[in-house]
Inverse folding.
C-alpha cells in the first residue's frame, strides 16, 4: 500500500510511531542522566499521543483511558520520581561512559531489522491499520534490553526497564487496540509499584555498597572459587 | 463459592492488618492464624470442586478445575507450615540481627501479599491477570530478599528484580500475542483472554502466532520456574533472603510459575496438533536438570545448594510435562506435590541448622545430630527424601517419569539416570559431614518447632507408600484435563 493512499490520521500514527522508535535510539546514545530521563518522558508522551490518535482514527474510545494513564504514569509521574531521586542521590550531573557508542547504535539498527523479520507472520495476518507499527513496538522492547545491557548505572537500567514496558504497551495498542481494561489497570499498577520499589532500592544500594554502579554488585557467584 | 472468595480475601485483609500490627511480638501468631484460616477455606473449596466439578465464579473472574484446586490446597498447606516455622525463626532473627519494627511490619505484610499473589495467579480465569499476579509476586518478595540489607542481600534482590522483571516482560508480550490470536476468533473482545473461553476455541487459534506466543511465554514464566539459562536469580534470592522466604519461594512460587506454563501448553497443544511446545519444554527441562545437578557439587552455601536442587527438580517436572502422555503428566503432578512438601521442609530445617551454626557456610555446619538430634534427623531424612530414595514419594514420582520416558523416548532415560546419580552424589557429599561430623565446641541447640517438618516428611512418606483414593482421583482428573486421557 502506498503511503499517500492512507488517511491523514493513519499517516500521523505511522509518523509518531517512527518518532517513538527514534527516542529509543536517542536514549541508547545519551550519556548524561538528566537528559536521559527527559528523553524517556518524551517517549511516554509520544506513546500517549499515538495511542490517542489510534483511539480517534479507529473509534475505540477505551484507548483514550489507556492514553491518559500512559501520559500520567510514563510521561509525568515516573520521570518526575526518577528526576527527584537523581537530585537527592546527587547523581544528576553524572555522565556515564557509553562503551562503543557507534557499535551500540549499529547493533540497535540490526535489532530493528530483526524486529521486522519477527513481525512478518503477525503482520500478514492482521487487517488493522496499525499493523505496520507492530515491528516498531518489538524494536522498542529490544532496544530497551540493549540499553540495560550496555549501561552500568542502576538508574539507566531502570529507564531501560521502563522503556521495555513502553514497548510492550505499544505492542498491545497497535496489534490488538489495547488489552482488556482490567488487565491494563493491573499492569499499570504493577509498573507503578515497580517504580516505587526501584526508588527504595537506590537508597539500599547506596547504603550497602556506597555506589549506584551495578558493576559493584559482584559478590555472589554461580560457583565458589 | 464462599470458600473461593475467602481464599482470596483472607490474605488480602492480612496485608492491611499486618502493615499495622506486623511488628508486635504476637504478629507471628496472627500470621499463623491467617494462614490456618486460608487453609480451612481452601479445603472447603476443594470439597466444593470435588463434589460439584469445575467452578466458574459469577462475572467469570475466577475459574477452578481439578488442576488448580489441588495447587491452591497445597499452597495453603505449605503457607501454614512455613508460617508456623517463621514465628520462632524471625523472633530469633530480630534478637540476633536487630531487625527494626518497620522491617518486621514489611515482612509480615508481604508474606501475606505473596500468598495473595499466589492464590490470585492460581484462581484467576484471565491470562492477563495471571501475568499481573506473577509480577505482583515478584514485587511482594523483592524487598524481603533484601531484608537484612547486607551488600549480598541487596545484590541478590536487585538481580531478582531485574532478571524476573525483564523475564516476565517477555511473558507479557506472549500474552499480547495470545490476545492477538484469540481476538480474531472470539467475538467478544473482553472474553478473549479468559481460560474457559480460550480452551473451547483452542482449535481455531492461528498456529503460527500461537507458536511465537508460546516461545515468549516459555521464556517469561520459565525465568520464574528457574529454567537454565534463566536461573541466575534463583540461588541468590534463596540464599540471601530470610529462610521462610526461601521455603515459600521454592515450595510455591516455582510451582505456580510452572502451572502458568502448563496451562499455556494445554492451549497451544489444542491449536497446533503437534508436540512443538512439548519438545521445547523437554529440552529446557533436561538442560536445567543436568546443569543444576552439576552445580550442586560446587556450592559452599547450604541454602544455595538446596536451591540448585530445586532447579533440578523443576527441570525434571518441566521435562515430564513436555513428554505429555498421561503417565508422565501424572508423575509430574505428583512430583510437584512431593517436591514442594519436601523442599519447604528442608528449608525449614536448614534455617534451624544455620541458626545453630551461626552461618550458612557448609564447611562450618558440623555435627548437627549431636547438638540437636531433631534438626540433624530432619535434614538427613529430608535430603534422603529429595534425593529420591524409596519409600518416599519423590521416588514414586521419579519412577513414573522414568517409566514414561522409557516408553516414549527410551534413549533419554540415560541422561535422566545419570543426572539423578550426579545430584544424589552432590547432595550427600555435603550432607554427611554436616549431620555426622564433630560438633564444634560450645555449639548449642536453638528453639525449634520440628513438628511441621515431620508432618510434611510424613506426608511425603505416605504418598510414597500409598496414595489415598481421593488424591489419586484428583490427580487423575487433572491428568485428563492436561493430557487428554486417563493414566489408569
Amino acid at each position: 500500500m502506498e503511503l499517500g493512499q492512507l488517511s491523514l490520521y493513519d499517516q500521523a500514527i505511522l509518523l509518531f510511531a517512527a518518532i517513538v522508535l527514534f527516542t529509543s535510539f536517542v536514549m541508547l546514545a545519551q550519556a548524561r542522566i538528566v537528559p536521559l530521563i527527559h528523553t524517556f518522558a518524551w517517549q511516554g508522551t509520544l506513546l500517549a499521543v499515538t495511542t490517542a490518535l489510534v483511539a480517534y482514527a479507529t473509534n475505540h474510545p477505551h484507548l483514550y483511558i489507556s492514553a491518559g494513564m500512559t501520559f500520567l504514569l510514563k510521561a509525568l509521574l515516573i520521570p518526575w520520581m526518577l528526576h527527584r531521586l537523581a537530585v537527592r542521590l546527587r547523581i544528576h550531573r553524572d555522565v556515564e561512559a557509553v562503551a562503543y557508542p557507534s557499535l551500540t547504535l549499529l547493533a540497535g539498527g540490526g535489532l530493528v531489522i530483526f524486529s521486522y523479520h519477527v513481525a512478518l507472520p503477525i503482520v500478514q495476518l492482521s487487517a488493522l491499520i496499525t499493523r505496520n507499527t507492530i515491528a516498531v513496538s518489538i524494536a522498542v522492547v529490544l532496544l530497551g534490553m540493549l540499553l540495560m545491557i550496555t549501561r552500568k548505572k542502576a538508574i539507566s537500567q531502570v529507564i531501560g526497564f521502563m522503556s521495555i514496558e513502553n514497548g510492550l504497551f505499544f505492542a498491545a495498542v497497535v496489534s490488538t487496540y489495547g488489552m482488556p481494561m482490567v488487565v491494563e489497570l493491573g499492569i499499570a499498577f504493577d509498573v507503578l509499584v515497580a517504580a516505587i520499589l526501584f526508588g527504595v532500592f537506590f537508597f539500599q544500594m547506596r547504603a550497602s555498597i556506597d555506589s549506584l554502579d551495578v558493576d559493584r554488585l559482584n559478590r555472589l557467584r554461580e560457583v565458589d572459587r | 463459592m464462599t470458600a473461593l472468595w475467602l481464599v482470596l480475601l483472607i490474605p488480602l485483609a492480612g496485608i492491611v492488618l499486618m502493615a499495622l500490627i506486623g511488628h508486635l511480638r504476637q504478629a507471628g501468631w496472627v500470621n499463623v492464624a491467617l494462614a490456618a484460616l486460608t487453609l480451612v477455606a481452601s479445603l472447603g473449596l476443594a470439597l466444593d470442586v470435588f463434589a460439584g466439578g469445575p467452578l466458574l465464579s459469577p462475572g467469570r473472574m475466577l475459574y477452578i478445575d481439578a488442576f488448580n484446586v489441588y495447587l491452591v490446597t497445597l499452597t495453603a498447606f505449605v503457607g501454614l507450615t512455613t508460617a508456623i516455622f517463621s514465628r520462632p525463626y524471625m523472633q530469633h532473627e530480630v534478637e540476633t540481627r536487630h531487625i527494626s519494627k518497620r522491617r518486621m511490619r514489611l515482612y509480615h505484610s508481604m508474606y501475606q501479599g505473596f500468598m495473595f499473589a499466589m492464590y490470585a495467579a492460581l484462581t484467576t480465569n484471565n491470562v492477563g491477570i495471571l501475568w499481573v499476579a506473577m509480577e505482583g509476586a515478584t514485587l511482594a518478595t523483592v524487598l524481603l530478599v533484601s531484608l537484612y540489607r547486607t551488600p549480598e542481600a541487596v545484590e541478590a534482590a536487585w538481580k531478582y528484580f531485574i532478571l524476573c522483571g525483564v523475564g516476565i516482560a517477555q511473558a507479557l508480550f506472549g500474552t499480547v500475542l495470545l490476545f492477538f490470536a484469540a481476538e480474531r476468533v472470539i467475538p467478544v473482545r473482553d472474553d478473549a483472554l479468559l481460560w474457559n473461553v480460550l480452551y473451547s476455541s483452542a482449535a481455531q487459534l492461528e498456529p503460527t502466532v500461537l507458536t511465537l506466543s508460546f516461545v515468549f511465554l516459555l521464556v517469561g514464566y520459565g525465568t520464574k520456574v528457574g529454567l537454565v539459562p534463566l536461573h541466575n536469580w534463583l540461588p541468590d534470592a534463596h540464599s540471601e533472603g530470610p529462610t521462610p522466604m526461601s521455603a515459600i519461594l521454592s515450595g510455591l512460587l516455582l510451582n505456580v510459575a510452572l502451572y502458568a506454563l502448563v496451562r499455556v501448553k494445554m492451549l497451544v497443544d489444542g491449536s497446533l496438533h503437534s508436540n512443538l511446545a512439548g519438545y521445547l519444554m523437554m529440552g529446557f527441562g533436561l538442560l536445567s536438570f543436568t546443569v543444576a545437578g552439576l552445580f550442586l557439587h560446587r556450592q559452599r552455601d547450604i541454602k544455595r545448594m538446596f536451591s540448585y536442587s530445586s532447579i533440578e527438580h523443576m527441570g525434571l517436572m518441566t521435562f515430564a510435562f513436555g513428554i505429555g502422555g498421561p503417565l508422565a503428566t501424572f508423575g509430574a503432578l505428583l512430583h510437584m506435590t512431593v517436591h514442594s512438601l519436601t523442599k519447604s521442609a528442608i528449608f525449614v530445617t536448614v534455617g534451624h541448622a544455620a541458626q545453630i551454626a551461626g552461618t550458612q557456610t557448609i564447611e562450618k555446619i558440623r555435627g548437627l545430630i549431636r547438638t540437636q538430634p531433631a534438626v540433624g534427623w530432619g535434614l538427613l531424612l529430608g535430603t534422603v527424601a529429595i534425593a529420591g530414595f524409596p519409600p518416599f514419594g519423590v521416588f514414586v514420582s521419579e519412577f513414573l517419569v522414568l517409566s514414561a520416558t522409557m516408553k516414549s523416548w527410551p534413549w533419554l532415560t540415560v541422561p535422566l539416570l545419570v543426572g539423578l546419580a550426579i545430584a544424589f552424589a552432590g547432595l550427600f557429599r555435603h550432607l554427611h559431614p554436616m549431620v555426622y561430623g564433630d560438633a564444634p565446641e560450645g555449639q548449642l541447640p536453638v528453639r525449634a518447632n520440628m513438628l511441621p517438618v515431620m508432618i510434611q516428611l510424613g506426608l511425603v512418606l505416605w504418598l510414597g507408600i500409598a496414595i489415598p483414593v481421593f488424591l489419586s482421583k484428583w490427580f487423575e482428573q487433572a491428568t485428563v484435563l492436561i493430557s487428554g486421557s486417563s493414566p489408569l
Notes: Chain B has 19 helices and two strands. The radius of gyration of chain B is 21 Å. Chain B touches chain A through 53 residues (CB under 8 Å). Chain B has a mean pLDDT of 91.
